Amino acid sequence: MVQLYNLHPFGSQRVVPCRQEPARFCCGRDVLFVAGTAASCRVEVFALREQGRCDALGSFATLGPVLRMAHSQAGDYLVTIEEKSKATYLRAYMNWRCMSAGSSRVCVRMVGHKMEESYSETLKEQMSVVEMPLSDPPLCVSCCPVNGDLLVGCKNKLVMFCLKYLFINQNLTVLDFERSLILHFDNVIPTEVAFCARHIAVTTELDVLILKLELVHHHGLNQSGVKDEGPSTRTLQLELDEFVVCQKPVELLGEESKLCEIPITLESTDLPTEDTKCFQVRYLRFTPDQSPFGFCEETKLHSVQLLPVYQTGSSVTDHEETENKRELLSLFCFFSLPHVGYVYSVGKLVELISTYQYSEKSEQAVLTPQFLHVITSENLQCFTVRCSAAAARDEDPYIDTTIKACPPIALDVCALRMQLFIGPRAICHFKNHIILLTKADMEDITERRKPTRRMLSRKDDCIKSRANSESEPGWNLYIINTVSTIQLYREMVDYSRTYENVKTESCIHLLSEAHLLVRAAIMDPHFLNSDEKEELLRVFRESCAALGDCYSRYDYHLALPYYRMSGLSMAEVLKRLVSEGDEIQTYERGFLFYLTHCLNEDVNEELSKESANQVLQIFYLADPAQLPHILCSPCMRNVCPLRAVKYLQKVEKIMPSVVLTLTKAFMALKTGDLAMYEHEMDSYKETVLACGFIGQPKLLRHYKEEIVVPTEFAVHLKEMQPGLLVAATVALHENSKMELEEADTFFKILCSNSEHAVPQLLVDFWEALLVVCSQEETLQELLLRLTSQYVWRISKQQFPETKPLRTTEDLINSCNHFGLIFPWVTSIMSVESPSDKSYHEDISKLQSLLCSQSINIASALPVLEPLTEAGNVGLTIHVICNTRLGKYEEAIDQLLKRCPDAVVLYAQHELKDNNRAVWWNKLLPELFKRTRLTGNDCPVLISSLKETLSVVAVELELSDFLSLLPEDGTAAFFLPHLLHCSQRKLLT
């Protein structure tokens, strides 16, 4: 469906002062080439200036009448198909601009002809004509706008020429071509071709074929199963059947395209190398419905075109190297039947973008990033296009989210204007100009003198010198200036207001068209260098705001992304949509969706008291369930707390909840009403309140420039109910509402600690989190953090600034990650220094952690390093670590050296099962040795030796036990143990 409007995309028009009747024409970078009819063998060149002004630059002769012509922006050359003596020739005109400087020197050479050094100095000042011989007559040509390569259509084949830059010397670069690929077809006669970025569109009398050449490296048999048939021709043959005529509209995409049954052979004409680049083909085929007519004028295809869209912001200047660096984003293909036209996206995905139904039979059409221009027998018609909408989605992954939006590709197209002309015959496009050739019959000329058919205002300043007889033959070549994007945008917006209160869908449709018009202008490669750059960006934001306004009146979510793209603040949006003092105003879901998202996200905007109260009233009337949540937003900091409590009390009667109670308590704090605060907080148990914060974390924290900021509520809880604060934070972490690092920052800011200092409340949080934590990675991180903090406090003799919420005994009873402290550790610590008593809680928590099986001792060793020499504490840490690592002999050495009183207790607790042998292999020999050295001066060693002998005597056979006794010992000392050993043997 086509929406019909009556806008004014066409501005002034001027007549091109051609000397002879035009037959063919095309546009270059800033020029217009016009080839005359059969009687003339010349091409006239005109400079296109601002506002459609046109100045003659000169002309040059051709070999014969020009049948086809095309200009390449890359390389700035003109290619023609010319006829002479019933033969056709393919020629490229290089360096033609020297003709406008008055030079008449022309060099004619064959393609690939080696440049002689004698020509070097003269090449700068002469035009060069490159002739490209072909085995079959050329029928049509196209130049790739990306790299300047040339494609020539012949009967049953397409020939590709690569544009080459030959560096003669530092001051001279010459352009040439190299034939690189031939595509052979069966029974295909191309009528038109289009070529862009290895995509080829071919029209025949029956259908359209779009080919995509995919580059693959040749290695015998490539992945697609296409076989190399020889080193000289390197032919790639797709296994396809014969061509058949379809009797209904056919659109074959992707793998289905193989069903189109057109055999294609690719012949590479490059010199073969070890790593020859080869191509494989994928294609789309479109065949119109011919069943009612058979083939006739009603089914004739025309105006095939490939339209590239480049990455936004790609800088383009007049320098070729910079132009060639433009990055292709999307590619579109247009082709037309007499009464309908089609635009396909053929880049990353192949899909139909738009279908255009014409009001009358079309003659020719041209697609631009902003418009489709179509000529009929009497009209120049202008339609909108969807290319910028499709390209925007290729470029930006955040399109169609709550962050950004773009009008849909499937939006109905618009006919903006149907401008009357007499006898339109041909059309082309250049920047913001349409070049139109009209040829009128004598009846038309008579009709033209009548005032009933009025064309555009015509500026005749460039043709006043022409005699009336020269302007009467019935042809004219017009340069029609299209109005600026901003001017047409303004007209479309004004037009949309007629539907604003009557038909909102039509209003949105026109505003969407205006938005896409501006978006296309911004995606133009010349945008960065445009004088209108800032104005276009401002208009773009304005169009987003207008679409936001429209969608806010709908039950629709698109108001949010459009308002975001507009750059409007919430306060500005409120002024646009909310009437002052109107308490009965209705608010649609689109507007509420926008407000809810902005308030629930941490937007760095603080509403004034008036605006905040306005938002409060909006939600009370439209969505009261959201009141507790929106009141917790940092944007609502200035809301009147008394009014908020009043509304919350009304809502509570209908929808009570823990979050609502907490929000009332928050508002009570703001008013300073501690009695109300305590009443609300006493409504639920502490565990329920802690879980209530999961429903609305903003009661405790929000963000400012991505940094977490505690609320006044959190500050109050820290002073009055720290246990509830810690429990709530643990609940937030366990429900993925607060990360571990975020909690660190939260408590450090809350307790006004420096970035590196760890407040006790954060340690309380880590300890509480250990109780419920189930993720191994987080568990090990917490264990290391707590270990590090305990070590730091003990080594630095640093007291916690607040009383810990849990004792060691509490943690051991509630958390299996805190283990029972070993008896031998307690024994060592019983001989503690007076200074250790001040840090007893941290010491016992550290020992409890290490005594559990949870912590990875190997990872903890670097953290424990500061306690190496810390008296008995250090000893216990060393021995626990060695024991956990299986280093029992080292542990025994440390105990015998520093605390022999505990060695037997250690052995009794640790040397069991598989470690039992350490008693007689390590402990007993060490005690023998140390007892001999000290004699009777160390009763602890003697006592330990006796205890050890008792164990060993029970465990070993008598012979084994005797072998362990020292040879220089006295029998009397060992007799009791020998007797004990013998008695045990007799009993068994």
TrEMBL record:
Q: Where are the transmembrane segments?
A: none
InterPro entries associated with the record: HPS3, HPS3_C, HPS3_N
Domain BLOC-2 complex member HPS3 C-terminal: start-end pairs:
487-985
**Name listed for the protein in its UniProt record:** HPS3 biogenesis of lysosomal organelles complex 2 subunit 1
Q: Output the Gene Ontology cellular-component terms.
A: BLOC-2 complex; cytoplasm
Task: Report the Pfam families cross-referenced here.
Answer: HPS3_C, HPS3_N
The BLOC-2 complex member HPS3 N-terminal domain covers: 3-467
Q: Give start-end of the signal peptide.
A: none
Source organism of the structure: Falco tinnunculus (Common kestrel)
